[in-house]
What we know:
Layout: H1 2-26, E1 41-48, E2 54-64, E3 71-81, E4 92-97, E5 105-114
Parallel strand pairs: 3-5
Antiparallel strand pairs: 1-2, 1-4, 2-3, 4-5
Amino acid sequence: xxxxxxxxxxxxxxxxxxxxxxxxxxxxxxxxxxxxxxxxxxxxxxxxxxxxxxxxxxxxxxxxxxxxxxxxxxxxxxxxxxxxxxxxxxxxxxxxxxxxxxxxxxxxxxxxxxxxx
Length: 117
């Protein structure tokens, strides 16, 4: 009986290591925190690039009014970190939530989706 317990103890860590390694390969494109939780992402248009290493991204969201059902559009501006200053006004970008970088910056530009002609 003791030999079976020892065999089970040696087999379990390898199975757990293989299981935890597989999902990490599949979700490389989704930003994650150290604990494995996914971060919020938004897609918006760069409306200002005046500040150094910072862009202002305007994000629109639409939803149905709870009582009347009419489509309502709400916009919100986010300050996002742009390390290389490569994004220009009019670019469509994906931003991801990150740790606080300054008083107003809590987002980071992840990728450029579309550049206007």
